[in-house]
Request: fold
Amino acid sequence: MANEWETFVKKFADMKEGEQEIFIKSITAGQSKYDTKHVRAKVAKSKKTLPKGDVLWLRSESGARHAEPWCVEILEELPEWVPGKPWENVLDALDRINKGASGNPKKSAAPDFRM
Reply:
């Protein structure tokens, strides 16, 4: 049985196909159900595009679930935090990381700011 995950977006149109950093929550039955991971992953709208991918459900900020599942293939688990201000929306922080300073999608993982 494939794993099932969900992720949150401000608007469904915000989710793009390709490699990106996202937070995903397991919704697969078992001990790790509801565990959240910060990952670098490939995301696709279709299983045809990402045959090895797990099921990924998109949810809006208000919790509405997208009608069709997407697919996700986890490439790397990242630290469980993202750089930002404590009161900042995590979706804004992830958007900044994924776009990088130039506004183009970022190819590498988040920098390590630990001391």
